[in-house]
Task: inverse folding
C-alpha cells in the first residue's frame, strides 16, 4: 500500500461486500487491541458519530458510507500521532467531492505527470483491480466520493464507455462501490451522431431520445453512476452553439436524460475564444465565462451543476477568484481546482496547493458552491502522484472538500505524520517548506499575477513571450515602459464583473494587493509599490528571492530522512527544480531588463 496509508496493512486482495464491512476490517486491522461496534443508519448519509463506550470499546454509527469515513477519521487520527476521540461527529460540507481524471483511451493522461493512465491502455478500458482498491481506499480515507475516469476531451474510442465498454465499466464501478466512490463519465456532446443521427441539436427529439435511451442503458448497468461531465463548445469540443442553442438548453437536455436515475450533469464553464487574434484588443479572455453564463442564471435544471475553474484564466499560479462563482445566485455550482501541476511545476517542482485554496475561500463564501472538483494528479507510477510529495495535494484536497474550514498547516502536518512519521524538528522543517512552496514557485515564475510566460503547449519552464502573439488570449503586453493589462473600467472592464467590495479592493493600483497588481493594472516599471520599491525592482527582487529560497529548500530536502524509494525521486526532482528556478529567474529578469533598461539596485547578475 502506497502514499499516506502505507502503515495500514489490511488485505486488499478481495473486494469487501460493503462500505460497512470495509470499515470493520479497516478498524480491526488498524487497532487489533480495540473492539468496535459499527452500525449503519441510513438517515446519517455520509455523516458519522464516534463514541467511546464505558468498557473502552468504540461505537461508530453512520450512513452506509458514513461509517467508512468515521473509520478513516479514527485511523488518520491515530496514524498521525493523535488520540482517539471520546465523542466526535462529522458530515461533509459538499455532497460531491470529485476527482476528474484527464485520462485518454490510448493510456496517455492529458497534463499527467505520474505516468500512464490507471484505467486505460491501447484504446481499451483495462485496470489492475488491486490498484483500483488501493485508489478507492486512498480516496475514501480523505472523504472523496466521485471519480470521473476519462478526459473531458473525449477522444475516440472513449465514447464506448457508454456503449460497448459498459460491462467492464460496471465491473470497475463494483470495485469502487465499497469505498464509497461513485464513477462519473465525461461525455461527448455529439455522441448521437455516431449512431446515424444527423445532428446533436439538444432540442431535436431524436437526439433527446438517444440520450434518454443511453442513460437508461448506462444506469441499468451502473445504478449509482454520479452522472456525466461535459466540456462543450470549449477548445474545439462540440456543443450546443453549433445549433444556435445556449448552454442551458444543452445541459438541461442531458439533465432530463439522467434525472430518472438521480444522475447529475456537471457542465464545465471553460468557454472562451481560443482563436483570438492578438491584435484584437476588444476581447479579454478572463471576461469570457461570465459573458457566456451569467445571463443564464436560473435557467439550469436542478440536477445540473456548473463546474467553474477557480480563476478566470486557467489554473495559473495566481489568479483572482472567478467572478462567475460569486455571480450565479440561482444555479448549482462546483469550483474546479487542478491537482495536476500543469502550470505549477509538473510534479517536478514542489507546489503545495492548500494555501492557495484557502485564499480562494477568503473571497468565496463556502455556501455559494455545492461541490468541489479537482483535476487528478494520479497515474500509474508506483507512488500514484509522480512526486511523492505531490500526494499532499490529493490528501489535503480531500480534507478541504469535506470541510472547507480545514486548517492548511494542520492538514499538511497530518499528511506528513501519516506518510513519514518524522521526528518533530524534521516534521517542522518539511511543513514550513511545503507551506511556502507555492509562494516560492510564484516568486521565480511570472510576476505579480500576470501569469503565463511559460513554454507554449508543454507549460513547464519559462518563455516570456511564448504566448504573446498566439491565439489563446493570454497577453502581458510588456514593452519598454510598462507591463500588464488594465482590467478596470478604464480598460477591459473585467473588474466590473465583481461585487462592489471586490471592485474596491482591486480598482486602485495604489491599494490593490501587490500579488494581483499586473493582473488588474498596466503600470510603468517606475511605479512605486506600497513598500517604496519600484515595480521593476520588485520583479527583480522576487525572482532572486525565489531562486535563493529554492536553494534553501534543496538543502532542507537533502537533510531530511526520506525513506527509499521516495528519497531518490525527491532528490532527483529537487535538482530539476533548482535548474528550472534558475532558468526562470535569469530569463524573466533578463527579459525585463532588456525591455526596461533598468539596473538592479543591488547589482546582482542580470544577463545582457
Ligand atoms: C483537458 C487547458 C489545458 C487542457 C485542458 C483544458 C480544460 O487548456 O491545457 O489540457 O483540457 O485546460 O480544462 O479543458
Result:
Amino acid at each position: 500500500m502506497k502514499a499516506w496509508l502505507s502503515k495500514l496493512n489490511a488485505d486488499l486482495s478481495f473486494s469487501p461486500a460493503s462500505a460497512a464491512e470495509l470499515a470493520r476490517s479497516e478498524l480491526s486491522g488498524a487497532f487489533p487491541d480495540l473492539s468496535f461496534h459499527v452500525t449503519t443508519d441510513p438517515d446519517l448519509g455520509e455523516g458519522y458519530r464516534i463514541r467511546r463506550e464505558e468498557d473502552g470499546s468504540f461505537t461508530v454509527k453512520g450512513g452506509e458510507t458514513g461509517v467508512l469515513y468515521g473509520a478513516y477519521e479514527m485511523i488518520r487520527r491515530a496514524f498521525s500521532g493523535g488520540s482517539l476521540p471520546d465523542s466526535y461527529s462529522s458530515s461533509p460540507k459538499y455532497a460531491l467531492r470529485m476527482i476528474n481524471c484527464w485520462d485518454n483511451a490510448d493510456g496517455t493522461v492529458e497534463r499527467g505527470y505520474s505516468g500512464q493512465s490507471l484505467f486505460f491502455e491501447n484504446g481499451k478500458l483495462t485496470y489492475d483491480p488491486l490498484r483500483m482498491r488501493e485508489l478507492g481506499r486512498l480516496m475514501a480515507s480523505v472523504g472523496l466520493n466521485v471519480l470521473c475516469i476519462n478526459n473531458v476531451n473525449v477522444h475516440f474510442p472513449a465514447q464506448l464507455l457508454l456503449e460497448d465498454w459498459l460491462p467492464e465499466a460496471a465491473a470497475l464501478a463494483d470495485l469502487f462501490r465499497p469505498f464509497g466512490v461513485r464513477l462519473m463519465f465525461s461525455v461527448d456532446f455529439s455522441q448521437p451522431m455516431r449512431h446515424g443521427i444527423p445532428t446533436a441539436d439538444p432540442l431535436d427529439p431524436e437526439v433527446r431520445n438517444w440520450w434518454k435511451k443511453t442513460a437508461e442503458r448506462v444506469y441499468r448497468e451502473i445504478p449509482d453512476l454520479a452522472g456525466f461531465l461535459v466540456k462543450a463548445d470549449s477548445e474545439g469540443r462540440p456543443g450546443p452553439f453549433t445549433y444556435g442553442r445556449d448552454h442551458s438548453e444543452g445541459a438541461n437536455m442531458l439533465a432530463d436524460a439522467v434525472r430518472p436515475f438521480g444522475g447529475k450533469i456537471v457542465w464545465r464553464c471553460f468557454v472562451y475564444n481560443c482563436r483570438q487574434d492578438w491584435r484584437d484588443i476588444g476581447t479579454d479572455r478572463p471576461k469570457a465565462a461570465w459573458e457566456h453564463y451569467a445571463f443564464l442564471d436560473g435557467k439550469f435544471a436542478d440536477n445540473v451543476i456548473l463546474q467553474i475553474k477557480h480563476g478566470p484564466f486557467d489554473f495559473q499560479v495566481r489568479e483572482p477568484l472567478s467572478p462567475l462563482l460569486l455571480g450565479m445566485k440561482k444555479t448549482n455550482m462546483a469550483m474546479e481546482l487542478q491537482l495536476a501541476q500543469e502550470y505549477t511545476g509538473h510534479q517536478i517542482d514542489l507546489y503545495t496547493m492548500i494555501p492557495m485554496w484557502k485564499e480562494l475561500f477568503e473571497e468565496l463564501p463556502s455556501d455559494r458552491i455545492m461541490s468541489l472538483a479537482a483535476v487528478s494528479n494520479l497515474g500509474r507510477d508506483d507512488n500514484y502522484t509522480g512526486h511523492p510529495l505531490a500526494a499532499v495535494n490529493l490528501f489535503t484536497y480531500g480534507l478541504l472538500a469535506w470541510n472547507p474550514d480545514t486548517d492548511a498547516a494542520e492538514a499538511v502536518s497530518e499528511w506528513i505524520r501519516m506518510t513519514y512519521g518524522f521526528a518533530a524538528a524534521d516534521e517542522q522543517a518539511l511543513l514550513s517548506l511545503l507551506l511556502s512552496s507555492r509562494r516560492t514557485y510564484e516568486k521565480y515564475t511570472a510576476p505579480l499575477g500576470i501569469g503565463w510566460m511559460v513554454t507554449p503547449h508543454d507549460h513547464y519552464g519559462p518563455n516570456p513571450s511564448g504566448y504573446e502573439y498566439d491565439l489563446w488570449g493570454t497577453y502581458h503586453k510588456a514593452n519598454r515602459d510598462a507591463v500588464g493589462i488594465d482590467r478596470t473600467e478604464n480598460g477591459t472592464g473585467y473588474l466590473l464583473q465583481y461585487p462592489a467590495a471586490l471592485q474596491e479592493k482591486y480598482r486602485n493600483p495604489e491599494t490593490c494587493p501587490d500579488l494581483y497588481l499586473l493582473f488588474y493594472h498596466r503600470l510603468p516599471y517606475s511605479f512605486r509599490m506600497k513598500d517604496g520599491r519600484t515595480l521593476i525592482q520588485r520583479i527583480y527582487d522576487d525572482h532572486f528571492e525565489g531562486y535563493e529560497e529554492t536553494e534553501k529548500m534543496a538543502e532542507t530536502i537533502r537533510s531530511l530522512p526520506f525513506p527509499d524509494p521516495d528519497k531518490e525521486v525527491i532528490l532527483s526532482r529537487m535538482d530539476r527544480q533548482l535548474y528550472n528556478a534558475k532558468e526562470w529567474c535569469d530569463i524573466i529578469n533578463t527579459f525585463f531588463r532588456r525591455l526596461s533598461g533598468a539596473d538592479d539596485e543591488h547589482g546582482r547578475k542580470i544577463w545582457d
Observations:
- The mean pLDDT is 97.
